[in-house]
Amino acid sequence: MPQRQKRDPLKMSETENSTAIPQDFDGLKAIILERKAQLPKRLRQVAAYALDNPDEIAFGTAASIATSADVQPSTLVRFAQHFGFEGFSSLQQIFRARLRERTPGYDERLRALSGNDHSKLESGSIFNGFVAAAHRSLDNIASSVEPEAFERAVNILADAETIYLVAKRRSYPISGYMAYAFGKLKVRYQMVGTAAGIDDDILAMAGSKDAAFAVSFSPYASESVNQAKLLASRKVPVVSLTDSAFSPLAESSKVWFELVEADHAGFRSLSASMAFAMALTVAVAEKRRRIAEEQAME
Amino acid sequence: MPQRQKRDPLKMSETENSTAIPQDFDGLKAIILERKAQLPKRLRQVAAYALDNPDEIAFGTAASIATSADVQPSTLVRFAQHFGFEGFSSLQQIFRARLRERTPGYDERLRALSGNDHSKLESGSIFNGFVAAAHRSLDNIASSVEPEAFERAVNILADAETIYLVAKRRSYPISGYMAYAFGKLKVRYQMVGTAAGIDDDILAMAGSKDAAFAVSFSPYASESVNQAKLLASRKVPVVSLTDSAFSPLAESSKVWFELVEADHAGFRSLSASMAFAMALTVAVAEKRRRIAEEQAME
DNA sequence: GGAATCGTGGAATGAATATTCTATTCTTCA
DNA sequence: TGAAGAATAGAATATTCATTCCACGATTCC
């Protein structure tokens, strides 16, 4: 990095007026947060980016960071000078020092997970418990979900005109999130079971060109099971996510996944299910994009 | 870093003869140690320096490192090329990546993932990516959520008569799941923003004896932000979950948590958020149970 | 409402950078 | 010993870099 000659000391005093130049990352973060309200538009944009992507600042070049943050390189320099630094490079040193000081040792991780500060407080152990359970759940699906089955599920859903999402109660947030993602990805979908009463009408529109994704964990919501059955009888291919090979959903499904969320104190979170749902959603969208590309080629 | 045109492929094959180019720091370290004995004098000098001062390699320039290691800059380039890299810069990336990935346990998981069957199929890599991202997210919250803040949040919500849940769009599944869990746990709650139009009426019922939990990630839904502001102005304590210190939610919140979900290919799942939400929900319910017990004793 | 200050975008600039090239020194084996 | 090859040092080069500068909008303040 260029180490230019120092600026005129007299001019320096103009900028470093009120507070001292921060010497470490925490100090810098504090000052940025303190002044964030008074910062001009672009500088605030840089501030937000810097605190959200400190690693990028540490390693990137002014040009690359500027592109990522959607700002001019000169804005980065102005930002640094605004906080009393000589230029962008000296600001960058703070971000680099932050990475240097961190001990990337095995010990730290171990302490963070088992014996960290959280366990000192009463609620802390609950927090730790759920984080650990989520880790276990993820380890679980990585091994229990068969790649071939996943591939088949993606193909089924990618070929569908409309994807019907069936989920109730505990599973509902999963389909809710998929609905959100499908919407963003421009994949046509239809949620089943939002408003009471009209479900049958919605399901009546489903045909063999469509597909469905059903989620239900024990104790299985009878509605979801029945709706999956109904769809299967109408030749709509069903992909399902459930927690047991004996799930009533399995019989109605062309492909189904067994996903057991690890629990903490009897409560299960949805961490692994969410990762699975997102993977499936994106994989389907990606597959569709590729199909569309191939068709455009012809 | 200068990205020159590729070298002559024929000349390339001279260098990258036997083994593949290492992709991570551990692999590089192994190869260096393996070949260290056969290395020429200056290259061995560089090898020793590199393994002893990895941070210097990560942050320094070729010139500065060369001076420290008492070597010519060109020697660094030759060293990098000796191990199959295109130049010094690409070797440096390895050292930088090492600092970026703060979690040592994560490396193993990633390698375990990329080595399993999933990577053979096209959709498999997407699946792996999201599982890995979820792991990273969980590692993140374990260190970024302060136990004291968590404790305060639990206290606020446990003392509330009714808990108002504020979330839109991407965050909606989180509050949806909390609503489900609160219902099972017999904690009085009220979702905000389900049916259009009546939100203001619902919020009008909230008072200082209640509390709110708001979730919003960038790009922040203006509705959520406004509703949190409104609640705060009505003396309703607000606990919030968001992804940046710059989140507009932070201003209105008594306690707020910064939780950045790791992304895969630009898509973020909700795995860590779900674990957090569940931990908070159960911790609140647990706290309430204890309060109720204490009152019963009197 | 006009002047003045501040913030911004974008091109210009020279310093610094990684890399290549070549002359020289050091090994190695006949 | 002496030639052939590898390894090295150091200058040369093209590129990239952070920074500066200036013109143009946007605010703010009389």
What shape does the CA trace of chain A take?
elongated
Q: What is the total domain count of chain A?
A: 2
* Biggest chain-to-chain interface with counts: A-B, 79 and 78 residues
What Rg of chain A is obtained from the alpha carbons, in whole angstroms? 26 Å
CATH class of the largest domain in chain A: Alpha Beta
Q: What is the multimeric organization of the chains shown?
A: homodimer
The CATH topology of the largest domain in chain A turns out to be Rossmann fold
Strand content of chain A: 5-15%
Helix content of chain A: 55-70%
Major β-sheet profile of chain A: 5 strands, parallel
Average pLDDT confidence of chain A is 79
The strand line-up of the biggest sheet of chain A is 2-1-3-4-5
Question: Can you characterise this structure?
Answer:
2 copies of one chain form a homodimer. Helix content of chain A is 58%, strand content 9%. With 298 residues, the first copy, chain A, is of the alpha/beta class. Chain A folds into 2 domains: 9-101, Winged helix-like DNA-binding domain superfamily/Winged helix DNA-binding domain (Arc Repressor Mutant, subunit A); 145-297, Rossmann fold. A 5-stranded parallel sheet of chain A has the order 2-1-3-4-5, sandwiched between helices. A two-stranded antiparallel ribbon of chain A has the order 6-7. The two termini of chain A are 51 Å apart. The model of chain A is unreliable at 1-18 and 103-119 (pLDDT under 50). At the A-B interface, helix 3, helix 4, helix 7, helix 8 and helix 9 of A face helix 4, helix 7, helix 8, helix 9 and helix 10 of B. The first copy, chain A, binds a DNA duplex (30 and 30 nucleotides) through helix 3 and helix 6.
